[in-house]
TrEMBL record:
Residues 91-137 form the Tc1-like transposase DDE domain. It comes from Caenorhabditis japonica. Residues 2-54 form the Transposase Tc1-like domain. This is HTH_Tnp_Tc3_2 domain-containing protein. One of its GO terms (biological process) is DNA transposition. Pfam families: DDE_3, HTH_Tnp_Tc3_2. GO terms for molecular function: DNA binding.
Amino acid sequence: MDRNILRSCREDPRRTSTDIQVFVTSPNEPVPSRRTIRRRLQVAGLYGRRPVKKSYAPQYQCPTVKHGGGSEMVWGCFSDTSMGPLKRIQDNDPKHTSGHVANWFRVDLLEWPSQSPDLNPIEHMWEELEQRLKGFRASNANQIFAQLEAAWKSIPMTVVQTLLDSMPRRCQAVIDAKGYPTKY
């Protein structure tokens, strides 16, 4: 049983004692308690599922997304014939437009008003994109962007055509509401 506990931990150092308990349980042996598993790991020099002297080795690190749980701002376009590319962007918030941040991102920022009204079918495309990404998880910004790109490319042109066909109704709704919010 001790070998199985150690093997389970070495296969995936992020396994919890409960996960290890399920992994090592067999019908012929009694189920070890989580406390027993932790004690056996400590005797083997594994504190917190990683060796004390190697705690910063890459195999014991878990990539994470910082600041806001993994949102990614993108720019996208489409026409009645095709889907355009997705590009990473930053909004015009002063903390994002400072010279230091612009140099760090090494991208050109698009200029537009930070509080612009949205009479734009792209907003519905973003909703479509969000629906397609429900349930996906990513551990870093590159994975998020890769998932966004894949979902963007999978949107059928019938969705695009429906949105484009709605433009006359959208414009009339804004005119009728004298610029106030509409159902769109």
